Structure formats: C-alpha cells, structure tokens
Amino acid sequence: MFNLQLRIISHRLRERSRHKQTMMEKVLLSIIAASVLCVVSSHVQHQYHFVYEVKNMTEAQSYCRDKYTDLATIDDMEDVKTLRDMMDLSKIDKTAWIGLYDDMDSWRWSDRHAEVEFTNWWQGEPHHDGSGEHCAEMSGNGKWNDNPCNTPRQAVCSSVRGSDVTFILINSTMSWTEAQSYCRANYTDLATVRHEAENQEVKNLADGEEVWIGLFRDSWKWSDGSNSSFRYWKSGEPNNGGKEACVVMNFDRSGLWEDWNCAREKPFICYEEIVPKHKMRVSVKMNSALDLNNPEVMEEVLKQLKQRLKEKGVNEDVKLSWKKQPDGKVFHKEKKKTSKKDEL
Predict the structure, then answer these.
(1) Are the C-beta atoms of 44 and 260 separated by less than 8 Å?
(2) Rounded distance, CA 22 to CA 227, Å?
C-alpha cells in the first residue's frame, strides 16, 4: 500500500454574485493504491443475449442495435465456449446469426488516394460466384470481372508523376497480391482506371489478355466495425453456396461457423457493452476549514484525480463521479480523535 498525493492549487471560486468570492485552499488527497489499480484494469466487456425470435440478418441487426449494442462479435474461443454454454438447443434449429458478413459493396482501389467513381463491369458482375472473389480483372474486351485473388494473371501497373499517368503491362502471371507488391516496388501501384479513356488504354495494352487491375474489396467484416480477426469456420466454409454473405454459428457442430443467405430467417445473438464500475475510497487531509461538499470543490477534486490517473498510465475512457451518502453529502469527518481527515 502507498499513498498518492494530489494538491489542488489555490484559486478563487466565483459565485453568482460578483461580490461574493471565496478562496479554495490547498488540499492533500490520499488514494489507496489498490483502488487505483482497479481503475486501471477496467475495460468494456461483452454480455451476450440470445434472441429466439426468427429474423433475417438485416432485421436481426436492427433489433440488436435498438435493444442492445449490435449483433454478436466473437473475439476468441472463450467467447465461443460462453455462447455454447448459453445456447438452449430446444429453442432453435441448430443455427443462429452472428455479426459477421461479407461486404459485397466494399470495392476500392489499391491506390488509397483514389475514389471508385468509374466502373466497367460485365453485365451481372460482380456476382461473387463461389468463395473469395475479392479482386477485379479486366477481360480482353475491356469489361471487368470479379475473380479469386489467387488466380494467376498478367497485371497492369501505373506510374504516376504529378498529373501524368503511364500504364505498364507485366507479362509474367501472378496472384493479385503479388501483382500489387510488384507494382508498388517498381512503379506506383496496380492500375487505377478512372474513366473510359483510361479503360481503353489498359485494354489496348493488355491486347486481349485478362489482366489484374487495382480494384479489390474487403471481405468479411463485423457488424459493429470491430477489427477482430478471429474466425471459426466449419470445414469447407465459407463456400457461398447460394449468395451466402452472412454467418451463423451451428450449435449442432460445436458452434462452428457457416455462411448463409442473408434473407433466411433465424434466431440470432446480440451483445451489449458492459463497462465495469469500481468504487474508489478517497481520504482527504485538510490544512484548513475547506468545505469539501461544495460542488465546485468536488468538481476540482475530480479533475485532479483524472489528471493523476492519466499520469499513472490510465489512458482509457474513465468516468469518475461522487456517490452521495443517505444524508445527501459526499464527505464526512472521521470520528477518530487523532484523525483530521474527511472520508468518502
């Protein structure tokens, strides 16, 4: 145990009347070290809620956002185990929606500074046929098609100098990711096609070959925007067996994940953010008759506490507030004769 001391610098408290002023005295605060550690360890926790009413993915998402925080985000096997233990299989047909989905409309250019304003897809494209069609190629006729990123293709790079753009054909075949790395190492990036004239230029350069361009899309995302990379797919999943862009947990298969059509109606799992609350006992040493129950004094004490916590490495969003006793006061003097402390 050790004591942290805070000093509230003397300053004037301004009252409503311009003529009534009082001086804030110097106050020494002693905070029990263990209490400070409790604040350091506080973090947002997930509390899961099963909803056995069946809805499609969009309806389930709206319900969770309205009643709780969002559809369930799953961070690790501990979360999987928690959900398996909570599930009542007598109320569902094996599967329930979670918050993972395949964002079909997240196409963007490898060049992060370019916006997707022009596209030249084949009719019916991008169609996401099969699993993992996250990269765009240009066909021999100049039309675009989505394709698995590991497909070997020639590529077109771009070299940008100011407003001048030059396209370069790379004759050797490689995956989209390999093409991106090659273009960035030797030129500027994979080709960004901004308008019809550039599309024609790349088409002529490819001379009938299918080539990678710089368009790609992010794949699986969480409904709440979480960056959790944890995945628990069943063998052979995701397989996009019928425009399947949403994810369920299969509780008849140990909670393993499967992709399903988002229009199917299923039970679902929501989560709620729970912020742990910790009580902190504060003892205050006084060197004068300062009224610690004065609202402005209490506010200043909170500011000083927050500052000291920040100095001790507490960088998360911590909210401090006083708890009033039954008599409406926060601070009370200790009854010990030898003590001159006010106690919370």
Answers:
(1) no
(2) 51
CA distance 203 to 197: 10
| pLDDT band at residue 101 under the 50/70/90 scheme | very high
Structure token pair of residue 278: 């910790």
Contact 190, 179 (CB under 8 A): yes
Q: Collect all residues with Cβ–Cβ distance below 8 Å to 270 and sequence separation of at least 6.
A: 48, 49, 51, 63, 64, 67, 68, 69, 70, 71, 72
Contact in structure between 215 and 135 (CB atoms under 8 Å): yes
Q: Are 261 and 104 in contact (CB under 8 A)?
A: no
pLDDT tens-digit series, residues 153-164: 999 999 999 889
Token readout for 143 is 């039309």
Residue 261 is encoded by which pair of tokens? 């059509």
Q: Which residue has the tokens 């947002």?
A: 44
Q: Which residues contact 146 (CB under 8 A, 6 or more apart)?
A: 125, 126, 127, 128, 133, 134, 135, 136, 217
Tell me what the pLDDT averaged over the chain comes to: 80
Torsion from C-alpha of 138, 141, 146, 147, nearest 10 degrees: -80
Q: Are 277 and 44 in contact (CB under 8 A)?
A: no
Helix (H) or strand (E) holding 283: strand 282-286
Report pLDDT digits (tens) over 49-90: 999 999 999 999 999 999 999 999 999 999 999 999 999 888
pLDDT, greater one: 46 or 279: 46
Listed in order, strand segments (DSSP E) in 128-192 are: 135-138, 144-147, 153-161, 164-174, 189-190
Q: Write out the two tokens for 190.
A: 């994979």
Provide the whole-model pTM. Answer: 0.59
In this predicted model, what pLDDT tens digit does every residue of 211-254 receive, in sequence order? 999 999 877 899 999 888 899 999 988 887 667 889 999 999 99
DSSP string, 68-131: SSEEPP--SHHHHHHHHHH--GGGSSSEEEEEEEE-TT-EEESSTT-------BPTT-S---SS
**Which residues, in sequence order, are bridge partners of residue 144?**
121, 138
Structure tokens given for 252:
């008849």
